Amino acid sequence: CSIVGADHIADQLRELERKLGRPTFFDGELVVGDSFEATQAHLRSRGRHGDGGTLHLFDTLDMDVWHGSAPSQPLTARRAQLDALAGELAGEAVRILPWRYFETAADIEADAADVIASGGEGIVIKDPRAVYTRRRNNAWLRIKGR
Fold this sequence. Notes:
Layout: H1 7-20, E1 24-31, H2 36-44, E2 54-62, H3 63-66, H4 75-84, E3 94-96, H5 105-117, E4 122-126, E5 140-144
C-alpha cells in the first residue's frame, strides 16, 4: 500500500481483487476518525500510530480500463460489480458507499443538505449510463457545503 498507516485497507483490497480474479482499480475516499482534520493528521503521522481509517468505495473498474487500454462499462455495471463484493467485506477497513437514484432536483438538494448537516462534505451525483473517465466531465457533479 502506498499510504503509510493503511495496510489494513490494502490487505482488504488485495483480497477483493483476488476474488474478482483480475487487476482492479478501486475508487474511494479514506476517512479517519470523524473529520477531515483527523484524516489529515493520520496521514501526516506517516504510520506512527499504526493503521487507521476506513476506505469508502464508490466505484471500481478493471485496471486495463484505468490505464486506458480497454473501454469502460457504464456506472450501473461497475456498481453492480462493486455491490456484489459487499458480502466479502470483513471488519471496518473497507466499506461500500450506498447509492440510489434521485427523481428530482429537490430530492438531490435535500439529500445533500442532510449529508452536510450531519458533518459530511457533500455528495457526488453521477450519470448511471456514463462510462468512467480519468478527467473531469459533466457525468459527475459535486454538491458541497460552503
